[in-house]
């Protein structure tokens, strides 16, 4: 008789099987912590259903990794290695996922490698796997790395499907089965020409999920408030950023509520009550000739501008935030497509993908946030007096001053 498997009922894929080894990993405290780490951080303040966690995302990523590994006809040992790597790929995520990561001086993958390599989890994993091989895959390295962390990987496929399902935003629905069935493994994952439309659909989905979910303006406000408080905790040594893998969402909320710093306590109280900051200035990046220039602005430059604005408008500098939205980076555009035995970049095959590359700056903006009680002070704020902004595209807007352009 074969090994008895356990099945977990998943909201996206239905039944997902786990072998005994995987079940034991699942029940370890390091992995169970992920039940208490929200996948989308504070986005449930905007989409109340977005309470799914890194726990189910990790299981879903393992499921898709297994499907792809089987489709690629890997050996049984390789399939098991892909499964365990996909299962553990987010085990080091800090509280509220990417929200806390935005404050740390290193990416969450470094904490993931630490949890796998340096905690009690290591001894059990080493009974069956090479820890270095797991960490290589999580980093996207080696033959199997692109499956879990690459240009068209199972991590992205799962979070698009899962985030769409739980937020109720339909943009994230993708044909993952079509993508998986048309991927081949050479030195990297290569997409067959028959899978191009499904890949285009995934890219379009990500493009629309950015303004609707990941970079929704209220999401950015909540994230900036939490990060400002978390930074205070780290700078005052109330917490150590190297210990973030130990905390869950509830731990961090409790630490903030009991902080010695009144600003930190105020931020968490505002978030608890959804008393969020408001936008007082919004400039869309598409209005600039060279929007990439803004992304070269250092955090020190932004903080200096915040201090100067706060001083001029007579308010506490901690309560004013300048935020530049992220834009979709579309690593999938680098995917190689196989056409009659020759390889071409996806951007050369698909007009849609090329258009998305040009349109990625239509989404983000630079915004200024303050408490709603201070909003009226900033009617005459001119951001160009404090930051070196790129040149306006005058041909497009016929000399309209950018304070008047697409404010929303």
Protein architecture, described:
GO terms for molecular function: dGTPase activity. Residues 54-160 form the HD domain. Pfam families: HD, HD_assoc_2. InterPro entries: dGTPase-like, HD/PDEase_dom, HD_assoc_2, HD_domain. By secondary structure, the chain is an alpha+beta fold. It has two domains: 6-216, Hypothetical protein af1432 (Orthogonal Bundle), CATH 1.10.3210.10; 277-327 and 363-408. 45% of the residues lie in helices and 10% in strands. It contains 19 helices and nine strands. The chain has helices at residues 20-26, 29-32, 54-71, 76-88, 98-101, 108-118, 121-125, 131-138, 145-148, 154-167, 176-181, 196-214, 217-235, 249-257, 262-272, 299-312, 346-349, 351-359, 394-397; strands at residues 6-10, 14-18, 183-185, 189-192, 278-284, 321-324, 336-339, 342-345, 365-370. The strands form three sheets. The protein has a four-stranded mixed β-sheet. The protein is globular and about 70 Å long. The chain starts with 5 loop residues before the first strand and ends in an 11-residue tail after the last helix.
């Amino acid at each position: 008789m074969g090994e008895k498997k356990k099945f977990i009922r998943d909201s996206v894929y239905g039944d997902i099987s786990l072998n005994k080894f995987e079940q034991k990993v699942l029940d370890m405290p390091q992995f169970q912590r992920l039940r208490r780490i929200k996948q989308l951080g504070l986005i449930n303040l905007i989409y109340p259903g977005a309470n799914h966690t890194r726990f189910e995302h990790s299981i879903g990523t393992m499921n898709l990794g297994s499907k792809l590994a089987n489709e690629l006809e890997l050996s049984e040992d390789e399939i098991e290695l892909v499964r365990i790597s996909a299962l553990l790929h987010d085990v080091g995520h800090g509280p509220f996922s990417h929200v806390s990561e935005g404050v740390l001086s290193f990416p969450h993958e470094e904490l993931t490698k630490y949890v796998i390599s340096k905690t009690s989890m290591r001894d059990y994993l080493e009974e069956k796997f090479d820890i270095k091989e797991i960490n290589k895959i999580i980093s996207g390295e080696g033959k199997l790395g692109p499956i879990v962390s690459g240009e068209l990987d199972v991590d992205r496929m799962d979070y698009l499907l899962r985030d769409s399902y739980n937020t109720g935003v339909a943009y994230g629905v993708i044909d993952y089965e079509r993508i998986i069935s048309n991927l081949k493994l050479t030195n990297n994952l290569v997409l067959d020409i028959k899978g191009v439309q499904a890949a285009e659909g995934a890219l379009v989905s990500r493009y629309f999920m950015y303004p609707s979910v990941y970079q929704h303006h209220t999401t950015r406000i909540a994230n900036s408030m939490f990060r400002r408080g978390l930074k205070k905790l780290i700078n005052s040594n109330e917490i150590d950023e190297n210990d973030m893998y130990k905390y869950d969402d509830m731990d961090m909320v409790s630490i903030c509520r009991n902080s010695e710093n009144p600003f930190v306590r105020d931020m968490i109280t505002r978030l608890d009550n959804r008393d969020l900051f408001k936008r007082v200035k919004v400039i869309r990046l598409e209005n600039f000739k060279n929007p990439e220039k803004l992304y070269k602005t250092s955090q020190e430059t932004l903080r200096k501008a915040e201090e100067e604005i706060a001083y001029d408008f007579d308010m506490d500098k901690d309560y004013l935030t300048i935020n530049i939205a992220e834009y979709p980076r579309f690593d999938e555009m680098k995917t190689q497509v196989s056409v009659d035995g020759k390889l071409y970049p996806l951007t050369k095959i698909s007009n849609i993908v090329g258009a998305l590359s040009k349109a990625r700056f239509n989404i983000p903006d630079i915004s200024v946030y303050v408490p709603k009680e201070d909003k009226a002070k900033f009617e005459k704020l001119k951001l160009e007096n404090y930051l070196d902004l790129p040149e306006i595209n005058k041909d497009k807007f016929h000399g309209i001053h950018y304070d008047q352009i697409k404010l929303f």
